[in-house]
Structures are given as structure tokens and as C-alpha cells.
Amino acid sequence: MSVEEQAPSASEYIVHHLTHWQTKPQTEIVDFSVFNIDSLFFSMLLGVLGCFFLWKAARKATSGVPGRFQAAVEMLFELVDGQAKSIVHNAKSRKLVAPLALTVFVWVVLLNSMDLLPLDLLPMVWSWIYGAAGHDAHHAYMRVVPTADLSISLGLSVSVLAICLFYNIKIKGIGGWAHELVTAPFGTSKNPVFALILGVVNLAEQLISFTAKTVSHGMRLFGNMYAGELIFMLIALLGGTWAFSAAPGSLMLLLLHVVAGWAWAVFHILIILLQAFVFMMLTLVYIGQAHDAH
Fold first, then answer.
1. 60 three-class SS
2. Angle (CA) 112 117 120, round 5°
3. Options 113, 189, 220, 250, the catalytic residue
4. What confidence score (pLDDT) does residue 122 get?
5. Rounded distance, CA 121 to CA 135, Å?
6. How crowded is residue 50: how many other Cβ atoms within 10 Å of its Cβ?
7. Quick one: which of 13, 2, 5 has its CA closest to 239?
8. pLDDT under 70 in the chain at which residues?
9. What are 115's strand-pairing partners?
């Protein structure tokens, strides 16, 4: 078989890299009992790694002249703590919310940073392991950017929603929050009929608001990281076209692959940090709103 016959097409290459390693075979039917093992594995691994680095910085913290690692962590902590103080005005809540926001920022940065690894590095290693175990290496699927998986991004935003609901009940009481659900934002009326109508409208608006904030919170992170992952795949195709081509003119594709890959990686660092910061800030804003009375 010739090299050209062995090489996958562009669509096959992208589809393969967009397919998850799952607990069940790939199907076109939505099945909520299916888990993306690759996304869960890298999410937990990087979560533990991020907590370890924060623990290490806290353990080695000194009151004297800090080292570079401690200084970087202290600057990050002061940044997050300052944002938490300006948004969440309850000092008791900030004892939990500020460390939570710091953890969210570090975790999302690590999850996003997986996009900077060579696109085929970990999938190729996984294919070797999968093939060595006696399986068909062609079906060794592996995606390494957890935030480019909608289930992970929405899972994070739903967790933030759960924390917001917790603080709504804790700060306002179950009765106070229930009253707010049917009286805000349009108020109520002394007329029983109008009060009932406004209660239904207010409740519907509140439910829509909670849903919209949660979906947009997760979709914003997912959309940006998914788009970045696709661009890396398209850049990788330039190098793949050069590798499977014998034409002398294909060297231009290699040059374009290197230059475009370097330029996009440098720009993508900004996206990685910005998206993590936006996700953290929205987390603080939504929790802060849960403390506000209407």
C-alpha cells in the first residue's frame, strides 16, 4: 500500500481527533450514561496537580524575601482576593469563596493549557499503548483538552450554579429566597389576581435567568477552547500534508505549519489565561449576586 493510501483524509483526521475515549462505543443517540474517560482523567489529574502546587506554595511560604514561585502565587492570590472583596461583600463567605475562585482559576488554566501540547503527542502514545494491548490502534481515541468538552465546561458551570443556590438559601433563608423568586424583579401587587400573575412571571424570569447564566457560563469557555483546538488541527494538517507529500513545493507547507503553529500558540496563551480569568470572574459575580437582596 502506498503512503498516499495510508494517509487519512483531512476530514478523517479531524473527526478522529474530535472523538472521545468513552465508556461505550460511539453512537449517534444521546446517552447520558456514557462518560468521556479522557476528559474525566485529565480533569482529575490536573485538578490534583493544581492543588498540589498551591499546597506546596502555602507550605513553603516564608515571611522573608519570597522566591519566584511563592511571589507568583502571592500575586495571583492578591489578584483573586481583591476581586473577591470587590464583588462578595460578606467577609465570612469570602473565607470559602476566595480560595474557591483561586482554585477555579488555576484549574481552568491547567485544563486550557493542554491545548499547547503537540496535537498528536498524547493520542500517539495512547495508540501505542492501545495497540500493544491487542486492540485496533486505529480506534484509539483520545482528546486531551477537557474544557473543549461541553460536558466538562457545563459541569463546571452547573457546580457554580449549585454554590449560588446554596448561598441564596444560606444568606436569605429558604423562606426569604422563595419570596424573592416570586417577587423579583417585577415586584408584586396587593391585588390577589395581579399578585398571582406577577408571581408566575417573576418565577419564570428567575428560572430563565439561572438557566441562561449557567449555560452561557459553560458555553463561553467551551466555545473558545473548542475553536482553538480546531485551529490547531487545521495547522497540524499543513504539516501532515507536507509529511505525506513527495512534491518539492510542499516544503512551503512545512514552513507555514511551523510559523502558523508558533504564532497561534503564542496568541493562544492569552486566550487560555483570559478565558480562565473570565470564568473565575463570572463565578464571583454569580456568587455575589446570590448575596444581594432584591
1. coil
2. 120
3. 220
4. 95
5. 19
6. 20
7. 13
8. 1-7, 26-31, 243-249, 294
9. none
Take residue 138 and report the three cell numbers written for it.
486505529
Tell me the backbone φ, ψ of residue 14, rounded to 5 degrees. Answer: -70, -45
Cα–Cα distance for residue pair 260/252, rounded to 1 Å: 12
The pLDDT tens digits of the residues spanning 98-123 come to: 999 999 999 999 999 999 999 999 99
Between the CA atoms of 187, 193, 199 and 205, what dihedral angle is there, to the nearest 10 degrees?
A: -90
Instruction: Identify whether the C-beta of residue 145 lies closer than 8 Å to the C-beta of residue 112.
Output: yes
Tell me if 1 is assigned to some domain.
Answer: no
Contacts of 184 (CB under 8 A, 6+ apart): 202, 206, 294
Q: In the block, which residue shows the cell 491547567?
A: 110
Q: State yes or no: is 68 an active-site residue.
A: no
State the total domains in the chain.
1
State residue 1's pLDDT score: 39
Q: Catalytic: which of 36, 127, 153, 224?
A: 224
Alpha carbon of 216 to those of 158, 169, 209, 211: distances in Å?
Answer: 11, 23, 10, 8
Residue 5 lies in a domain: no
Amino acid at 196: L
- Domain containing 154 equals 12-24+34-291
To the query of whether residue 157 is one of the catalytic residues in this protein, the response is: no
CA–CA dist 264, 259 (Å, integer): 9
* Residue 3 falls inside a structural domain: no
